[in-house]
Amino acid sequence: MIAAGTIGVVVQDIVRADQATIDALGEFGVATVHEAQGRRGLLADYMRPIYPRARVAGSAVTILAPPCDNWMLHVAIEQVRPGDVLVLGTTSPSNAGYFGDLLATSAKARGCKAMVIDAGVRDVRTLSDMDFPVWSRAVFAQGTVKDTLGSVNIPVVCAEELVNPGDIVIADDDGVCIVRREEAATVLESARAREANEAAKRARFEAGELGLDIYDMRGRLARKGLKYV
To answer: At CA 193, angle to CA 217 and CA 218, rounded to 5?
Structure first.
């Protein structure tokens, strides 16, 4: 395993999870998957989709990039396989527009499904028209250079969360959640159980029952001193 923060390395062969498992996790969405794995894996709350209702699940191709320098994005796109998601973290904070429509065109041609970037993105209207989803720290037209090495497919910190190459990326309107590749089957089982439990509760809510009774809250509220007057 290459250490996080290593500079000047491109790992070409990474292990990816089974595609059926990735697709199944993607159907549950960020909130359910996050809860199913013990409320772990969420990227920071500032990571927002550039347009609504985008939803993806894929294997992470990770990028460590210097501030205001998108050279490693070009390097990373060569490593993309169909169904992958590019995940970029920076060596120090930067809101520059690393990613736009030209790189999206190149990434999409390789089968890339989305970009998750703890920095800036630009050409948002064109990206939306292309149906190429991006979750980013900022939307900012500031350009970048191509001068300093970073790395591809090493562990990176993106939006306060460690992401390993080959980890599963789940992203939707609620944000982005990372599932460790080696935990994917267990998390999927937990997500299925959680979804079944929520379906049963939803039926009770639709029938007019209150959360106060479904979750047996009345006794606890009384013990805390809640009084009805």
So the answer is: 5
DSSP for the chain, written as a single string: -PPTT--S-B--------HHHHHHHHHHHHHHHHHHTTS--BPPTT-EESSTT--EEEEEEEEEE-TTB-HHHHHHHTT--TTEEEEEEESS---SEEE-HHHHHHHHHTT--EEEEEEEE--HHHHHHTT--EEEEEE-----B--S--EESS-EEETTEEE-TT-EEEEETTEEEEE-GGGHHHHHHHHHHHHHHHHHHHHHHHTT--HHHHTT-HHHHHHTT----
Q: Contact, 119 vs 90, CB < 8 A?
A: yes
Q: What is the pLDDT of residues 31-59, one digit of tens each?
A: 999 999 999 999 999 999 999 999 999 99
User: What pLDDT score was predicted for residue 2?
Assistant: 79
pTM, full prediction: 0.94
